[in-house]
Amino acid sequence: MKTKIKFINPGILTTLQDYGRVSLQDIGISKGGAANPSLMEIGNALVENKDVWSFEFILSGPTIEILSSSTSISITGNVDFHLIRSGKKEIGSCYRTYILKEKDQIIINRTIDSVYGYISFSGNIDLDKVFESLSCNPRSKIGPRDGQKIRENEIFEMSSSMTDQEFKLDRIPENKNKNKVRLLEGPQFHFFENKSVKRFFNTPYEITTTSDKMGMRLMGCKIENQLTANIKSEAIIKGAIQVPADGQPIILLTDHQTIGGYPKIAVVASADFENLIQLPPKSKIEFKKINLREAKISYMLKQETIKNIIKSKVKI
Amino acid sequence: MIKNVFEYGDQAILIDFGDEIKKEINQNVIFVFKKLKQIISENNIVGIENITPSYNKLAIQFDLSKTDTTNIFKLIDQVKNEKVEINFNPNKIEIPINYDLDFGIDLERLSKITKLETNEIIESHLRTNFYVYMLGFMPGFPYMGDLDPKLYSKRLETPRVEIAEGSVIIVEQFCAIYPYKSPGGWNIIGKTPLKLFNQSQKNPSLINPGDEIVFKNISKAEFQKIWKKNYENQN
Hints:
Helix content of chain B: 25-40%
Strand order of the largest sheet of chain A: 13-20-17-18-15-14-21
Helix content of chain A: 10-25%
Oligomer: heterodimer
Number of domains of chain B: 2
Number of strands of chain A: 22
Shape of chain A: elongated
Largest interface: A-B, 37 and 44 residues
Order of helices and strands of chain B: EEHEEHEHHEEEEEEEEH
Radius of gyration of chain B: 20 Å
């Protein structure tokens, strides 16, 4: 029996995501995938999925109705939402499973003090993967349904799996020091003047409203370049911080372009990337320089924390 | 061949082959790119997510939970001392193009800038054996060079809001083709009816780094025929 769901309201920008697609950057396609993969992973553990995929929403989320059959769902992130179960409206809690039946609804209001949230359903979605991934990138039109965002009244079908057990987590992810972002020196670090580099690490920068999943534009002390503001284009990676001629840094995010011609002062430590991408426009960020060893250790610690959170899953 | 190898964040390595944009340098990049892909697939090396060539650099991105910088450095050591076999039998592709002025909308303006007749611009473009330095900007978008210096032009001061897919464009020493509709500031000289990128195919990009490209002049009638086949019969 298939579960059918309908997006009564699609939200501002809701897309289908998994871990993205690799080995294609040489032909112009970056990995993409979920902005905050740990939240997607935790959400899928709660609905007992082996194949990880979720609907990712931004700021103002969707309203979804279960059209037929039943399913189990989880919402991960810092999300304000309601459920309508058997005709009754209730306040929803993140990081737990809910079993939903025909005519029940999920009403996602908004993400609180964050940008991305995830809704995970048990089972697999009935769509063909594109380059081995379900991830959608509306700008490059890559992904199932030409990578487009979810539209009003769009219907999806899923294979249902066992849905008679609800779970919750004893430990949930916490976001301490989320405005402090650790960085490694970038390939063109030496392009920048000493005083500017000091200011870059000692004064906060503000995230501007022109940011999206491709890049985060910052505003703060101008970073002076002592060599050149243009380099021969080279590969961009997630978290690279480029500084164009105006001296205001841009952090390349999950759906970054594949190559770019601005010098890169720094790269975000992988351990801090998910915190960073969750910061809403107008937040202030402080940067701290670390070395590769510290970056590696903090990444391992972070992975360990996620594993422990998933292990803390208990039956309700 | 390799000038330098350095860390690029905690999940990537950047290999430096030089500072200039030159076919000889880029051929080294493409050689190491292909060699690494071969070693990775033959030895089932895990954790490498993307290898991205550009004019004179090669980036290797990896998953830090599966491998690390030390392993990638070792992998690079394996190719470092290999004798460069420049591929003397590269993949050659002929791209049909129509230069009619309704497609080549910048030809007359370019004629004024370069002080060449439009047919001289077209002939020079047709004579050029293009080399694909890299792909990027959007899926399947090739950076090809080098044009005759007489044809060099700058980007438009105000980029166009929309350029049609298939548009053949030039700027400085480069020529490129738009796989999709896009905004852009390059000069448009013609249009190809070929589809450059098709995500439903296993090898989705018609053109790949290191390929050699020549253009072939076709009439509007031929253009329409090929365009129909590629764009209209697909559904």
